[in-house]
Amino acid sequence: MSLLIGTFTIGCILSLLALGVFISFRIFAFPDITADGSVTLGASVAATLLIRGVSPPLASLAGFFAGTLAGACTGTLHTRFKINPLLSGILVMTALYSVNLHVMGKSNVPLLSVNTLATQSEQLGVRLMRGATSFNLAGWDVTVRDASVLCAVALAVVVAGLLLYLFLRTNLGMAMRATGDNVQMIRALGVNDANMIVFGLAISNGMVALAGALLAQYQGFADVGMGIGMVVWGLASVIIGEALVGTNQVGLTIIGAVMGSVLFRLLVAVALRWGLSPNDLKLITAGFVFCALIVPQFLRKKRLGSAHA
Amino acid sequence: MLEMRGVSKTFHPGTPNEVRSLRSVNLDLAPGSWVIIIGTNGSGKSTLLNAVAGTFLVDEGSIRLAGHDIMRWPEHARASLIGRVFQNPFSGTSPSLTIEENLSLASRRGCGRGLGWGLKASLTAKMRDEVASLNMGLEGRLENAIGSLSGGQRQALTLLMATWLRPELLLLDEHTAALDPKSADLVIALTEQVITREKLTTLMVTHSMHQAASLGDRLIMMHRGQIIHDFQGAEKRRLRPDDLLARFGEVRRAEQLDESAAEMLAEQYI
Fold first, then answer.
1. How far apart are CA A121 and CA A101, in angstroms?
2. Residue pair B248/B42 in contact by the 8 Å Cβ criterion
3. Is residue A293 part of a domain?
């Protein structure tokens, strides 16, 4: 049971990452690799601040803003200096590796003895349960720590998803969506598309960094290598989400990305349980995204083929 | 209203693909005039419109619009003065956004975009009326993605969007060329309605000699990046499609002579 709750918790945390990837990949069609670096950036900034005794919400927020800076850098490289989107992301991601090491001062910062959002929500949970450390849920023994962390994370994701949804329906948010959809039109309507891309990537990487900050606090350490492959992970979640709910409405796609993230984490947990080596995880993830990208084409071709026959 | 002086533009200068798309073009538009532009392929009609819209910056000359020197303004800044409808019906709307979201974007053309709610009730009520006036039955489908509509419907909506806030100048770039005849007639009727109602200053490129003869109060004909004919007032009103075709014939004949000879003949006989 503890494993299941842990899976849900990480799935929820990483759904913030999925939402960030959704903004860059789906709204702007901008393959933004920066995310691999911003996950770690958010984690390292938050961890370093936590160790200095900064309050956990504030440290997480700082992680978010560090991510927005990284995203704005990528956006500026692309729009101002006309560098290919993929390369802009790679440049910033590579630079972030050194930045992260500088922020942390070493390659790994443990957070076991400091106050984090995880310990704070645990304390709150224990107080609400009047001191009990575990309770019975449908025959399963659940520790209050696990349950309260999951509740806190789920709440954070709901708030973040709702804010994103509302934002995408403001004048600014709609202009951003239209920028990814039809640049010619949005320029003709007086919108500076370069600013939209910079701003959108800032928000995207801010959310990704926030996911990193929460992940570090949940797992109890920040590590310089924790961001590797995260973009693909986020993309897998978004693709699963689209398969679940379709792509017609913004609100649904956001819910889909969250569901996709949790579901994907669940699949991974099951696979690991069945004896998949953790070393093969990234290979399997990449293979999965590959399939998810080509299967729709393949199906279309097949349908066309049978229509002709 | 619009004042172009000695506007030139060369694409790919210094390469074998060099194209002198605009050669020192001068054009003055009186407020409220509706100017039709015709010309052969590659004559610079669309380039002229794009030079005004700011798709690229011109090499030489000056462009003034409604009292502003817009020569160095980027495209998105010029949009505060200019409404545009493109040849491709897919160019003017954002397919994955709904009709009402597209219109809402257009309702802030050239204004700042902040965190205000995009679809206020007062705005959607106005949208319903305006869209109903297109007589396409779209007023009940405001929440549908625009990508699901036909080219004619999208072009009619683009026209509505371009004129939602009254533009100082309306640019129509062969906006019916990609439509079926019925939709084209409909969009032309809507175009006429809005231009006469709002007294819009308009530059309209067209391939249709029928449209060129029957619409607008002035007609210019372009060839090789220059304006070679300019018909105004009574002269424009007398023009028939056959007259225009005859002018194209002249151009083609002149083309067959080499350039210097054509110039000499033009001086002597025209």
1. 29
2. no
3. no
